[in-house]
Specification:
- With 195 residues, this protein is of the alpha+beta class.
- Helix content is 24%, strand content 31%.
- The chain has four helices and eleven strands; from the N terminus they run E-E-H-E-H-E-H-E-E-E-E-E-E-E-H.
- The strands form two sheets. Strands 1, 2, 3, 4, 6, 7, 8, 9 and 10 form a nine-stranded antiparallel β-sheet that branches.
């Protein structure tokens, strides 16, 4: 088994309107592999959450990808001012013009991303899991039933965290995402069908 699967799991979501912190599995359950997520541009690692300062893999990722800034977010009712308002804003579908990099040091949460057909995939990130969502990918975040996540955020240069709520398809980051991850796959499928 891929060790990342112990800290990152993904599945297609149902269309239920219930509590956003519930798993929302489709019936029957339909899991998504980490390789399938990578085809959408979502990268993932399993890292040492107990010793992030000395984790050689995290150091290598930061150096290779140019992540020079890091901060820590504790998201729970006791530590996040305006908790209910913030959780609702995180759950609004949006994109960023830069990558979104999150390393879960404690707790867990859900990152929901869109597949090529605009269906929701729920990505459950637990302690030790790190994911990178590409610039221009529509997504949203919520806590799970534990109501707690401690996450490291990484940035290239000064932190910029500007959400652009859907629709913002005209942004260059969105256009590049479509070209790189959506149209590429459509072209590959056309070639496969012609073969």
């Amino acid at each position: 088994m891929d060790p990342r699967e112990e800290v990152i799991q993904a599945w297609y979501m149902d269309n239920g309107d219930g509590d956003q912190r519930l798993p929302h599995h489709k019936e029957p359950e339909e899991f998504v592999s980490l390789d399938q997520l990578a085809e959408l541009g979502v990268l993932s690692w399993r890292l040492d959450a107990d010793n992030p300062e000395t984790d050689p893999e995290l150091k290598k990722i930061r150096e290779e990808r140019g992540y020079t800034y890091m901060d820590v977010c504790d998201i729970c009712p006791e530590k996040l001012p305006n908790y209910e308002e913030k959780i609702k804003s995180f759950f609004e579908e949006h994109l960023h013009t830069d990558e979104e990099i999150r390393f879960c040091a404690a707790g867990s949460g859900y990152f929901d991303v869109r597949d090529r057909n605009d269906a929701w995939i729920r990505v459950w990130v637990k302690k030790g899991g790190m994911i990178i969502l590409p610039a221009g990918m529509y997504h949203r975040f919520t806590l799970d039933e534990s109501n707690y996540i401690k996450a490291f955020r990484f940035f290239v240069g000064e932190p910029v965290w500007t959400p652009y709520n859907r629709p913002h398809d005209h942004l260059p980051a969105r256009e590049q995402y479509i070209k790189t991850f959506v149209e590429k796959d459509a072209a590959n499928q056309a070639v496969d069908a012609a073969a």
